[in-house]
Amino acid sequence: MKASCALAVVLGLCRGPTAVVSFLPPPATALAGAKSSAPVAAGPLIAASSVAAGGRGSRLAAAREDCKSCMEAELLEEERKAAAKGGGAEGAATRRAALEEYNRREKARNTKIAFGSFLSAVGLFFFQHAAIAPAQANPVVLLRAMETSSAPLATALTNGKPTVVDFYADWCENCKAMAPSMREIEEQFKNQINFVVVDGSAEKNYDLVDAFRVDGIPHLAMVNGNGEVETAIIGAVPKDVVVDDIKALLAGRPLPFKGFDMFEGEDHNIKGQIEIDG
């Protein structure tokens, strides 16, 4: 048996190439003036690299094939010598049976490896898409979907629940950065508050922009259950600030984070500014 073959057998190197999966932390962007970072669209969570490409895996695969080739060559040589001498056929037959058993097991092992690799690839595919897709969703598409699913503001202001009115524009970078966290907040409080998303740059919404005194975006108007605008949070804001203010609205407590009073010296009840059916 050749040295390389012996080394492969001794070291147990008859293994196929494997893939290394590294889990990389998603990048995060801190928002100015925030006490914590708001979630933003994350990059890929997973990177897969093959050890086989010009590395250890390729050498192991070559050693496995070399091992098999030298076994076959030695057996053929032994059979040739046995035939020439007219004897020793029994030993050669035993070796031949051993080699055939080796080949059978090798084929079965390769089949298992192939099937296992297929299952791993399928699992990795679904893990990547499940983990990455939400993070990489287009924030403008997300904002528009939230706007489409929003209840009409006139309806929201008459059901007795607090309301968060989120004014955005598709060119607003802070709006896009905050979109994933706003979606999470909406999902968290969906049965307790009204979450109304409004495209402030759309002409059809200019009356709402005027009614809420929107001078900059993102603009989050915090409205209590009576329809009174308690504050307006303008600009990039961390998720926990919004959550804390919503909890205060639900509890009827003073808001822990006060932004701008857009109605200073005026009636804060927005119902009088908006046409309410019925």
TrEMBL record:
<dbReference type="InterPro" id="IPR036249">
    <property type="entry name" value="Thioredoxin-like_sf"/>
</dbReference>
<keyword id="KW-0732">Signal</keyword>
<feature type="signal peptide">
    <location>
        <begin position="1"/>
        <end position="22"/>
    </location>
</feature>
<dbReference type="GO" id="GO:0016671">
    <property type="term" value="F:oxidoreductase activity, acting on a sulfur group of donors, disulfide as acceptor"/>
</dbReference>
<protein>
    <submittedName>
        <fullName>Thioredoxin-like protein</fullName>
    </submittedName>
</protein>
<feature type="domain" description="Thioredoxin">
    <location>
        <begin position="132"/>
        <end position="251"/>
    </location>
</feature>
<dbReference type="InterPro" id="IPR013766">
    <property type="entry name" value="Thioredoxin_domain"/>
</dbReference>
<dbReference type="Pfam" id="PF00085">
    <property type="entry name" value="Thioredoxin"/>
</dbReference>
<dbReference type="InterPro" id="IPR044241">
    <property type="entry name" value="TxlA/HCF164"/>
</dbReference>
